[in-house]
Amino acid sequence: MRFVFPPAPHLDKHLYRSAVSFAWFIFQRYIRKMPMSEAILRRTTFKLLGIGCVGLGIAGAFLPLLPSTIFFILAAASFARSSPALEARILKHPVVGPPVLAWRKYGAIPLKAKVFALVGMAIGYAVFLLVTQPVLWLAVVVALAIIASAVYVATRPSGPKDPSLDECSNES
């Protein structure tokens, strides 16, 4: 079945038809329709991934060295591709929602979370050195990975530059 565009009276008839034909060719060539079975599989996979991330996030809330916010961020991203209702539940949650929204809108990590993350990285590296007593090259590789992670966390904003734009916090 071929889609027919309505005529454009202000364009030359042949020029219009060739432009429409070319646009249809590009559409068919580069934007294929996803089969229903593939769409269901993709949606189910993202939903299961989101549920797993929520489970890890809940576990991270109770286990001292397992982070929780990153798993809720990943769960919200997974649910955005599979279940908007579950995504909305995460975003509206009074405890989990504000950090996820802050990350989405501003790429922000609250100052308290940054301090905990940086101290946790330092303690984790110290424990790694004391317990495993690695060879020099392994200690350097792990140190570089932790330093890169610490720089990334430290350079993220702590919130919006203008506090009046902060819609993510419940402190009003």
UniProtKB/TrEMBL annotation:
Keyword check for Transmembrane helix: yes
Keyword match Glycoprotein: no
InterPro entries, alphabetized: DUF454
Domain of life, source organism: Bacteria
Record field: transmembrane: 15-32, 111-130, 136-155
Keywords carried by this UniProt record: Membrane, Transmembrane, Transmembrane helix
Pfam families listed in its UniProt record: DUF454
PANTHER family in the cross-refs: INNER MEMBRANE PROTEIN YBAN (PTHR35813)
The protein's name: YbaN family protein
Organism listed in the record: Roseibium salinum
